User: Which sequence fits this backbone?
Protein backbone atom coordinates (compact mmCIF):
# COMPACT_ATOMS: atom_id res chain seq x y z
CA UNK A 1 0.00 0.00 0.00
CA UNK A 2 1.22 3.48 -0.84
CA UNK A 3 0.90 6.24 1.76
CA UNK A 4 1.84 9.75 0.68
CA UNK A 5 1.45 12.22 3.48
CA UNK A 6 4.21 14.58 2.37
CA UNK A 7 4.57 15.32 -1.34
CA UNK A 8 7.96 16.97 -1.43
CA UNK A 9 10.97 15.14 -0.01
CA UNK A 10 13.84 17.34 -1.23
CA UNK A 11 15.76 14.13 -2.09
CA UNK A 12 15.71 15.01 -5.79
CA UNK A 13 17.02 18.54 -5.45
CA UNK A 14 20.47 17.51 -6.70
CA UNK A 15 19.06 16.01 -9.92
CA UNK A 16 18.72 12.38 -8.84
CA UNK A 17 15.72 10.18 -8.14
CA UNK A 18 15.13 6.77 -6.61
CA UNK A 19 14.21 3.76 -8.71
CA UNK A 20 11.89 0.98 -7.59
CA UNK A 21 14.80 -1.01 -6.15
CA UNK A 22 16.01 1.95 -4.06
CA UNK A 23 19.02 2.79 -6.22
CA UNK A 24 19.48 6.42 -7.21
CA UNK A 25 20.01 7.64 -10.77
CA UNK A 26 20.11 10.93 -12.62
CA UNK A 27 16.68 12.29 -13.46
CA UNK A 28 17.76 12.43 -17.12
CA UNK A 29 18.71 8.72 -17.25
CA UNK A 30 17.27 6.52 -20.00
CA UNK A 31 15.17 4.59 -17.48
CA UNK A 32 13.63 7.72 -15.96
CA UNK A 33 12.97 9.11 -19.46
CA UNK A 34 11.15 5.88 -20.38
CA UNK A 35 8.88 5.63 -17.35
CA UNK A 36 8.42 9.41 -17.22
CA UNK A 37 7.07 9.32 -20.75
CA UNK A 38 4.71 6.49 -19.77
CA UNK A 39 3.40 8.87 -17.09
CA UNK A 40 2.94 11.47 -19.83
CA UNK A 41 0.91 8.94 -21.86
CA UNK A 42 -1.27 8.41 -18.81
CA UNK A 43 -1.96 12.14 -18.60
CA UNK A 44 -2.99 12.25 -22.26
CA UNK A 45 -5.32 9.32 -21.61
CA UNK A 46 -6.87 11.36 -18.79
CA UNK A 47 -7.56 14.15 -21.29
CA UNK A 48 -9.11 11.65 -23.70
CA UNK A 49 -11.41 10.37 -21.00
CA UNK A 50 -12.97 13.84 -20.76
CA UNK A 51 -14.39 13.17 -24.25
CA UNK A 52 -15.05 9.42 -23.90
CA UNK A 53 -18.02 7.50 -22.60
CA UNK A 54 -19.27 3.94 -22.34
CA UNK A 55 -16.97 1.11 -23.41
CA UNK A 56 -14.24 3.46 -24.65
CA UNK A 57 -14.06 5.22 -21.28
CA UNK A 58 -14.02 1.85 -19.51
CA UNK A 59 -11.15 0.67 -21.71
CA UNK A 60 -9.26 3.93 -21.19
CA UNK A 61 -9.65 3.57 -17.41
CA UNK A 62 -8.20 0.05 -17.63
CA UNK A 63 -5.35 1.36 -19.78
CA UNK A 64 -4.57 4.07 -17.23
CA UNK A 65 -4.20 1.42 -14.56
CA UNK A 66 -2.00 -0.66 -16.88
CA UNK A 67 0.17 2.40 -17.47
CA UNK A 68 0.83 2.66 -13.73
CA UNK A 69 1.77 -1.04 -13.81
CA UNK A 70 4.06 -0.27 -16.75
CA UNK A 71 5.69 2.64 -14.94
CA UNK A 72 6.28 0.39 -11.92
CA UNK A 73 7.81 -2.22 -14.24
CA UNK A 74 10.14 0.24 -15.97
CA UNK A 75 11.26 1.93 -12.75
CA UNK A 76 12.48 -1.41 -11.40
CA UNK A 77 15.78 -2.46 -13.02
CA UNK A 78 17.56 -5.78 -12.61
CA UNK A 79 14.81 -8.16 -13.72
CA UNK A 80 17.22 -11.03 -13.12
CA UNK A 81 17.04 -10.20 -9.38
CA UNK A 82 13.22 -10.33 -9.21
CA UNK A 83 13.25 -13.68 -7.39
CA UNK A 84 15.47 -12.22 -4.65
CA UNK A 85 13.33 -9.12 -4.11
CA UNK A 86 11.60 -8.53 -0.79
CA UNK A 87 8.30 -8.48 -2.67
CA UNK A 88 7.48 -9.57 -6.21
CA UNK A 89 8.05 -6.61 -8.56
CA UNK A 90 5.08 -5.64 -10.70
CA UNK A 91 5.71 -6.56 -14.33
CA UNK A 92 3.56 -6.15 -17.43
CA UNK A 93 2.59 -9.57 -18.77
CA UNK A 94 1.52 -11.05 -22.08
CA UNK A 95 -2.10 -11.26 -20.89
CA UNK A 96 -2.26 -7.46 -20.84
CA UNK A 97 -0.79 -7.36 -24.37
CA UNK A 98 -3.31 -9.97 -25.57
CA UNK A 99 -6.20 -7.96 -24.12
CA UNK A 100 -5.14 -4.92 -26.18
CA UNK A 101 -4.92 -7.10 -29.30
CA UNK A 102 -8.40 -8.49 -28.67
CA UNK A 103 -9.84 -5.00 -28.20
CA UNK A 104 -8.09 -3.75 -31.35
CA UNK A 105 -9.55 -6.65 -33.35
CA UNK A 106 -13.05 -5.98 -31.96
CA UNK A 107 -12.89 -2.25 -32.80
CA UNK A 108 -11.39 -2.86 -36.23
CA UNK A 109 -14.31 -5.08 -37.35
CA UNK A 110 -16.47 -1.98 -37.91
CA UNK A 111 -13.84 -0.01 -39.84
CA UNK A 112 -13.30 0.10 -43.58
CA UNK A 113 -9.71 -0.60 -44.62
CA UNK A 114 -7.59 2.52 -44.99
CA UNK A 115 -6.75 3.63 -48.51
CA UNK A 116 -4.91 6.76 -47.37
CA UNK A 117 -2.96 7.90 -44.35
CA UNK A 118 -5.09 9.91 -41.96
CA UNK A 119 -4.32 13.15 -40.20
CA UNK A 120 -4.79 13.44 -36.44
CA UNK A 121 -8.14 15.06 -35.86
CA UNK A 122 -11.78 14.78 -36.72
CA UNK A 123 -13.74 14.58 -33.49
CA UNK A 124 -12.36 15.92 -30.19
CA UNK A 125 -12.03 12.37 -28.87
CA UNK A 126 -10.18 11.21 -32.00
CA UNK A 127 -7.76 14.15 -31.74
CA UNK A 128 -7.03 13.31 -28.10
CA UNK A 129 -6.55 9.62 -28.93
CA UNK A 130 -4.07 10.52 -31.67
CA UNK A 131 -2.13 12.54 -29.11
CA UNK A 132 -2.12 9.43 -26.90
CA UNK A 133 -0.85 7.44 -29.89
CA UNK A 134 2.08 9.73 -30.60
CA UNK A 135 3.16 10.01 -26.97
CA UNK A 136 2.92 6.23 -26.52
CA UNK A 137 5.10 5.80 -29.64
CA UNK A 138 7.70 8.06 -28.01
CA UNK A 139 7.48 6.02 -24.80
CA UNK A 140 8.01 2.87 -26.87
CA UNK A 141 11.08 4.36 -28.58
CA UNK A 142 12.53 5.32 -25.20
CA UNK A 143 11.84 1.84 -23.74
CA UNK A 144 13.50 0.23 -26.76
CA UNK A 145 16.47 2.58 -26.39
CA UNK A 146 16.69 1.66 -22.70
CA UNK A 147 16.65 -2.04 -23.62
CA UNK A 148 19.90 -1.54 -25.57
CA UNK A 149 21.76 -0.58 -22.38
CA UNK A 150 19.80 -2.21 -19.53
CA UNK A 151 17.37 -5.08 -19.07
CA UNK A 152 13.75 -4.29 -19.90
CA UNK A 153 10.76 -6.60 -19.70
CA UNK A 154 9.99 -7.58 -23.33
CA UNK A 155 6.26 -7.57 -22.54
CA UNK A 156 6.55 -3.90 -21.56
CA UNK A 157 7.84 -3.00 -25.02
CA UNK A 158 5.16 -5.14 -26.69
CA UNK A 159 2.49 -3.47 -24.56
CA UNK A 160 3.59 0.00 -25.70
CA UNK A 161 3.66 -1.13 -29.32
CA UNK A 162 0.10 -2.51 -29.15
CA UNK A 163 -1.08 0.47 -27.12
CA UNK A 164 -0.26 2.94 -29.87
CA UNK A 165 -2.12 0.68 -32.31
CA UNK A 166 -5.08 0.63 -29.90
CA UNK A 167 -5.15 4.43 -29.80
CA UNK A 168 -5.00 4.60 -33.61
CA UNK A 169 -7.93 2.23 -34.10
CA UNK A 170 -9.92 3.83 -31.26
CA UNK A 171 -9.30 7.23 -32.88
CA UNK A 172 -10.76 5.96 -36.13
CA UNK A 173 -13.72 4.51 -34.28
CA UNK A 174 -14.24 7.91 -32.57
CA UNK A 175 -14.48 9.45 -36.05
CA UNK A 176 -17.81 7.75 -36.72
CA UNK A 177 -16.14 4.40 -37.43
CA UNK A 178 -13.64 6.03 -39.76
CA UNK A 179 -16.17 7.77 -42.01
CA UNK A 180 -15.09 11.15 -40.60
CA UNK A 181 -11.35 10.48 -40.63
CA UNK A 182 -9.33 13.41 -41.99
CA UNK A 183 -7.46 12.01 -44.98
CA UNK A 184 -3.98 13.08 -46.00
CA UNK A 185 -3.86 14.49 -49.51
CA UNK A 186 -0.22 14.22 -50.63
CA UNK A 187 1.09 17.47 -52.09
CA UNK A 188 -2.26 19.25 -51.65
CA UNK A 189 -0.67 22.59 -50.85
CA UNK A 190 2.08 22.78 -53.45
Assistant:
Amino acid sequence: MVVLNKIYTKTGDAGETALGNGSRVAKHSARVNAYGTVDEVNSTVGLSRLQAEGDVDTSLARIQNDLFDLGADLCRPDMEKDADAEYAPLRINDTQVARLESEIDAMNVNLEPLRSFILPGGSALAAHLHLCRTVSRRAERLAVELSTIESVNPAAVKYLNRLSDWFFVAGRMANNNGTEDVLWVPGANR
